Amino acid sequence: MTNYADDEDQAAKVDARQNVSRRSALKGGAALAVLPLTFEGPAEAQPTAPMVAGVAVEPAHSVLLSTSVNGKVVEFRVDARSSLLDFLRERLALTGAKKGCDHGQCGACTVHLDGRRVASCLTLAAKAQGREVITIEGLSDGEGLHPMQQAFIDHDALQCGYCTPGQIMAAVALVNEGNATSKERIREYMSGNICRCGAYVGIVAAIEDAASKMRRA
Amino acid sequence: MPAAPFAERARFDARDKVLGRTQFTADIQLPDMLYAMSVPATIAKGRVRSVAIDEAMKIPGVVRVLTAKDFLAPIPPPRGATGMAAAPAVPTIVPDIAYRGAPVALVLAESIEAAVQGAEAIQATYAPSASFSPLITSEGAAREPSEPVKAGNAAEAMARAATIVEAEYECPAQHHNPIETLSTTAVWSGGRLTIYEATQGAQVVKANAAKSLALDPAIIDVKSSYIGGGFGQKGTAQRQTALVARAAMLTGRPVKLVMPRGQVFHNATFRPLSRHKIRIGADASGKMVAIEYDADHQQSRGGQFPPQYHESQPQMYGVADYDGTTANVRIDTQAPGYMRAPHPHPASFAFEGVVDELAYKLGKDPVAFRLAHDAKVDPVSGHPLSSRFLNECIAQGAERFGWSRRSQAPGSMVLADGTQVGFGVACGAYPAITSANIARLRVSADGSTRFAVSAHEMGQGIRTVIAQALLRQLDIDPAKLDLQIGDTSLVPQHLTAGSWGTASVLPAIDAVAAKMKAAIEELLAGRQIDGNLHRKLATVRRPYIEVEVSTLAPGQEERALLGLRAAGYALAGPEYPAFTTFSYIAHFAEVHVEPRTRRVRVPRVVSIADCGRVVSLRTAVSQVRGGVVWAIGSALREETEVDPRFGGWLNNDLADYVVPVNADIGDIDVSFIDRPDPLLNATGSKGLGEVAMVGAAGAVANAIYHATGRRLRRMPIRIEHLL
């Protein structure tokens, strides 16, 4: 588990890379806080996607969140109770990550947090402070596809598509963890992501295919 | 002339899906939108005495709480109405509680967090009923016989039988659990109600919302462009729809509800527990001659899901004498409903088990025994079966699977470490049903094409099928093809279920393409213009041509279109005026039973399907694999358990209702006969999504018998049953 000091360090690094001054970002947040009800909104940095209209949040429940989402710095005043999943979906309009159970049982909400796969429904948004979040929307530039996305198409590793973003994020992490070594191991390490349509045969084939391409890249 | 085989094509919407761009109902973001959270009843039966909302209203961000008094009385069904029109409106929030988990309030808030906290702060008091019936064996469970199915004289034929096998099988209650939960977003604006809902029947939702809210259906539009898995759960009217719509009307703001999975277990339909008592008699030569089959299932007090467990069995094996009875057993639960292969799945688990038992009793190989029972006629209607390649499925499957390596004696195949190996076979059939359709096609000079047709995409691949068929007929740009489905504001939307999607869109595509070609020909009036249709239109300076068609299923009359427009329902089959037709499949399963843990694994399955002409091979293969995964889940894992003390479902989440995960699934080898049905439609396609699952659970259970000698007649088969 990362401690707060680490979070601060990480945040500084992210800020430096994004060339956004953390001080100015915080200043922006503080300025917003003088309103009777604080309205969420980006401070200095641009959000990664069309942002949902600001929503009144009681200051007692809010925290200022500074994080990186898909490579872009995001400064938001968020409800302290908000899960990372709800924050991504309802505030940033990044709806690729899905809510299937809200209990960490289905994997449809899988995103990368500092490169590790997490169930974003079980992760408080506030825990993303100073860390790097990558969602399905940030996996490729949208024109070209990530090898895993292409392999999911090639092997028809999906049907309804609802669990697919979570499957792909889990699959990319699995390859990076070094777990794509056999069909059996892939099956085991993909078993946190339920596909009710039953596309498992295609998912395993897609991961084997993409893993070899990711290793070459 | 039957259609030629189709070339393979990638899934039409796969690119958007892997990019996370496909917009599902819960992904909709609208300005000024409120978030809703429903509050479930905590008694099994009784009446709400009071709902205190004060504490909830104090929570910052909570805007309003709806309770029973915020809803109007629904419109009763018209006098003398029959069929779907006679069904009462889906209840809104009502004081009478018919099952645990029914909604007692709906909290509206500025954020999800506030809505959830508000829902938890609602305090309801109840007047519980003195007693309730949670199980079909409970006091107060009411048995109600339903329609029998008969052919010939089974009692007489049974009396002549030399060998009889009789057994009782059971399938538990199960829940669909698509990964997308129930979700509705409603907008009330300018005197129109727009409902975005994950539904397999946009017109069904429209008709029912009108009834529940006492509104003119003409002011309601329902849109369901992508569904995150349906499996039948989203095929009937959903409890939350009218609640969310009413909330939007009362607040004047868009309202979105994503129902928590725990509540979905209680408010959605489910596969009811069913019991199957079957006797099969064979004559001295070992030919099956008589079937007696009594089926019943769990039913709610007012539920309408019929116990039609005799859909597929009568014509399976050429037995002329069949006697099937059915019954509902009414208890206090929410209404059960259609879940993938609704009747043929449990029925085939039972029936194919008894067939396997009979083969063993006669000392016959289960594959050879089935091959010796080909059929040409549906004994119930007396009609010829227009296409049936079940024996081809069995023979090809046996070959691919390596059935010849099997030794017949149970427990005779053991690996070096003591693992028991079993090979099992079972077959399935599903009625080839089709619907009327209405479609509108616009081809434009700017290169775009818009095609609106009655269909819903829940992952089965209907957009891919539509694109495949349309692009084979018309020279249009596939990159700018917009398939507009599941939207009642464009064309009426028939319920998509029962594997009738493909066979119901193909005739509409044939008709619309023919009409478009004729319109272009007339426009060009003999001029020869190179290029595709867009180029031709641009050359003659026509911005677009639009044509509309309506089509009917074989034997259907024009008035079927009224049913389609009004209620999204206009079905025909599998008995058509001069023929009957089904889709078929043969499944072969290998199971391994571990010697010490007794854990059952299914390392491989081979499935060969006869669904007529295959239109989209890639999505068809995926459909069959999915059906097999469902059957493995049903055979080995899935059961929703009732808490008899309090009513309601105990294991109402995905940790306790165990569906197959990746590690549960091995190889699934799928192939198709791909021979057209000569009578159903010009392409010769039947249906696939349901039949894919039928028989596969039986194949697993029969393989477990072969591995262990244990004949287990109740799903799911778990470790404790094999100790």
UniProtKB/TrEMBL annotation, chain A:
Keywords: 2Fe-2S, Iron, Iron-sulfur, Metal-binding, Oxidoreductase. It comes from Sphingobium ummariense RL-3. It comes from the Bacteria. GO terms for molecular function: 2 iron, 2 sulfur cluster binding; metal ion binding; oxidoreductase activity, acting on the aldehyde or oxo group of donors. Pfam families: Fer2, Fer2_2. InterPro entries: 2Fe-2S-bd (IPR002888), 2Fe-2S-bd_dom_sf (IPR036884), 2Fe-2S_ferredoxin-like_sf (IPR036010), 2Fe-2S_ferredoxin-type (IPR001041), 2Fe2S_fd_BS (IPR006058), Aldehyde_Oxdr_Iron-Sulfur (IPR052914), Beta-grasp_dom_sf (IPR012675), TAT_signal (IPR006311). This is 2Fe-2S ferredoxin-type domain-containing protein. Residues 63-139 form the 2Fe-2S ferredoxin-type domain. Transmembrane segments: none annotated.
TrEMBL record, chain B:
Keywords: Molybdenum, Oxidoreductase. Residues 19-130 form the Aldehyde oxidase/xanthine dehydrogenase a/b hammerhead domain. Pfam families: Ald_Xan_dh_C, MoCoBD_1, MoCoBD_2. One of its GO terms (molecular function) is iron ion binding. SUPFAM superfamilies: CO dehydrogenase molybdoprotein N-domain-like, Molybdenum cofactor-binding domain. InterPro entries: Ald_Oxase/Xan_DH_a/b, Ald_Oxase/Xan_DH_a/b_sf, Ald_Oxase/xanthine_DH-like, AldOxase/xan_DH_MoCoBD1, AldOxase/xan_DH_MoCoBD2, AldOxase/xan_DH_Mopterin-bd_sf. This is Aldehyde oxidase/xanthine dehydrogenase a/b hammerhead domain-containing protein.
